[in-house]
Amino acid sequence: MIIRTEAELINFGREIGQNLHVPTVIELIGDVGAGKTTFTKGLAEGLGIKDPITSPSFTISKSYAFEKTEAQPSSRGYKLGTGFLNHYDFYRLPDPGLMQEDLSESINDENTVTVVEWAESVKDILPENHRIFNITLNEDGSRTIEELK
What we know:
By secondary structure, the protein is α/β, with parallel strands linked by helices. It has a single domain, classed as P-loop containing nucleotide triphosphate hydrolases (Rossmann fold). The protein is about 25% helix and about 30% strand. It has helices at about 5-20, 35-45, 100-105, and strands at about 1-5, 25-30, 60-70, 80-90, 110-115, 130-135, 145. Strands 1-7-6-2-5-4-3 form a seven-stranded mixed sheet, sandwiched between helices. The two termini are about 15 Å apart.
């Protein structure tokens, strides 16, 4: 799929978020500036998160709360209540250390959507059935998005 503008990328993420089952793990692949955090902004909007979404590049992770609604049923049995979007960026962390434990807890929390950027150092703990989106920045400024699985 070709995405031409930032607004289109946010809308794409929003559609994914509106139709997401909780819990879910999403891996985002793409170079610096490809739009991974912009996609996550849309995803957060789709989950109903009003807080501003910023890149966790320097903090490694950020967490945002949302109210689970019937639009976000749980794949482990539907439950209303508070859900969380946990956004990780391992770009500056080739050895995740204690953050690997934090990520593992997030992945196993039935109320959490986990988004992981630069996941090479934590690939071994990502669930086999996680979703992967590859975002490529094209020469004309558009982006190509492919869901790899």
